[in-house]
Amino acid sequence: MTESPTDPMIGRLIDGRYQVRSRIARGGMATVYLATDLRLERRVAIKIMHGHLADDNAFRSRFIQEARSAARLAHPNVVNVFDQGQDADIAYLVMEHLPGITLRDLLKDYGRLTPEQTMDILEAVLSGLAAAHKAGIVHRDVKPENVLLADDGRIKIGDFGLARAVNNNTATGQALLGTVAYLSPELVTRGVADARSDIYALGIMTYEMLTGEQPYVGEAPMQVAYQHANDTVPMPSLVAHGVPTELDELVLWATARDPEERPRDARVMLDQLLDVEKLVRPRDDTAMQATMVLPRGLAAASADAETQILGRRPLAVAPASAPLPADDDDEPDNTAQLAGSATKRRRRGYWLFGLIVLLAALAGGAGWYFGVGPGSEIQVPSLVSASPEEATATLEELGLVAAQGTEYSTTIPAGLIVSTDPGDGARVSKGSTVTLNVSQGPTPITLPALAGLSADDAAMAIAEAKAVPGNVDEMFRDDVEEGLVISASRESDGGDVSQGGDYFEGLNVNLVVSLGPLPDVTGEAVDDAIGILEDKGLVATAGEEIYSDTIAEGDVISVAAAEEGPIREGSTLILSVSRGPEPVEIPNVVGMSWSEGKQVLTDLGFELKYQLGADQIAVLLKIESTDPAAGTSVAKGSTITLKPTNPFG
Hints:
- The strands form 10 sheets. The chain has a 6-stranded antiparallel beta sheet. A 3-stranded antiparallel beta sheet has the order 7-9-10.
- It has 6 domains: 13-96, Phosphorylase Kinase, domain 1 (2-Layer Sandwich); 100-280, Transferase(Phosphotransferase), domain 1; 377-439, Trypsin Inhibitor V, Chain A, CATH 3.30.10; 444-514, Trypsin Inhibitor V, Chain A, CATH 3.30.10.20; 526-580, 2-Layer Sandwich (Trypsin Inhibitor V, Chain A), CATH 3.30.10; 583-644, Trypsin Inhibitor V, Chain A (2-Layer Sandwich), CATH 3.30.10.
- The chain is built from 17 helices and 29 strands.
- Helices cover 30% and strands 24% of the residues.
- The termini are far apart.
- It is elongated, with a radius of gyration of 45 Å.
- It is an alpha+beta fold.
- Pfam families: PASTA, Pkinase.
- Residues 18-274 form the Protein kinase domain.
């Protein structure tokens, strides 16, 4: 990101030491700049808290916590923190500068990574997290944006802005800290986190590296949070073919919804990853063996041998020219011994034959028993979405007995099979009972009152009731404060549930949220009024000009929507503009008595000026002329000068 030419921080000297050069990135709490440490003559990254947050004690404490958390870690895979301080109105944090890109940039460029690349990055991140977990620190915001890939090949994890102690796992008191795409189920439902929450986020990040996409997406953040809390992360290989089974299992282990079923910390997961790497990237054993050099004597002997068995003691072989022993008198007569051995072999053969027949009979009986007899096992077929009649017929054809159960489901229509017990793929004995769970549709739930809640609180209440936050429509309302819910409706039938009501689990609830009252631009100049309304996302244009006794000419009298219906961002508004007071024609009062003429003119709203200074004299006279003259049109409220007749003729 390039720096803004109007950024006041560019060129500023902070704390008399750090010269700000350019802007690197901007986040929710702070902006990161490239700076020069003038004291040590090195480049650093300096994170400066946004000005509107610097006065907030909670944000400032969290900013300082990041410095302290990261400073406790000294590890090659963790971004080093050098300094932290306050310079006038600026709270800052100084870190090592790593020229390079983030993992997010890499994913944007390449879509998805190979299993080997994924394991390399994962090993580095796990090593850094393992050091954090050992030091008692939970990162709480593991995501690709916080994994830095330096130009020199180093991989580091940074941004411990949400970090806190491992044993401090109580509710944060804030709404879902961290990025929603990587939030663990316990953070969504209970607002608590420990080292296993980092593991979950890392599992989601691993899925994204392998597939190029996140497992859960939605139009609203709360829809994604609901999926984290209620769904199971699929195997990456279902999206990206070629992902090894071992990496599938690693992702499923890291993203288990129950924290107790995940690795307890990064060290445990790192050890498992190293084992997976040995399986996924096995070493070529023959390539790694050292060259074998045979002893000279053995090598020479092998030239005449048909077979050599290395490693055994060498047999003593007589030379081919050596004479055979010639003393036949010493050799025993072996005829009797040979006859006895033959008899023993025949007897042993009978016993072996009988044993083979017996074993064959047993094997045949076992084969019948377990193959087609009472002991045979049958694989339960998949019957999801089948009708109960079809499922029953299928089970009976397999020699199984069907029983009926019920189950609520948000995905299978009522009246069809949701699941079986035992589940599909299970092997059961012939004649076993399989329960067919028939869908009753979604689980009935009761929604709480939603009108008047903030949009986030309403979405949380919907999720807690086991429904899904749906579309959010925003409109301007004079009677409802900005950010509060005006109304809520069931997406299934449009029924109003603003004050709560009956609904079903897993179905969407749509919200209408107030943008607050329209800005009051009455009395504003037209151009100023258009600018004020455009700042609110509205389109404004000057319309009819109307006479007004109270609004100055050229200023706005009123605002109206160009079309009927609610006013939303992007709506067009028509401005009624003042033409000033409506002109009034001066009546002819010449010849009237002073008091008569005065009454006529003041009734029309004119101000009067007397050419003779004293009313006491003027009332005795008649009006000779007016200035402006009778018949002239002037603005209401204008001043008219009356000239009386000459009292002396």
